[in-house]
Design brief:
Layout (H helix, E strand, L loop, with lengths): L7 H17 L3 E8 L7 E6 H14 L5 H9 L4 H11 L2
Antiparallel strand pairs: 1-2
Amino acid sequence: MHPEYPGRIASRAASVAAVVKAVLGTADIPEIALTSPTAPGVTRRWTSMTAFADEIASARIWSGFHYRFATRVGYAHGPYGRRLRREKRDASR
């Protein structure tokens, strides 16, 4: 088995969701839709940035790029990850 690393895509998705939530005050958004360029007729729709970010992270698992724990760690490395690690570090001093 090869070593696993935090999922960068999950981290970016969590960051985008957090920015949208911070700007709009909610993770709920008007419906967005993306149509696959490689799977004709497949369109995915979301009304929540949280659901959007969760699906992006899950897609990395479904495609075999990551295990679930890698996406969870990547998600945590999003915008709040640094702050939480800093608080934990400061609390241990």
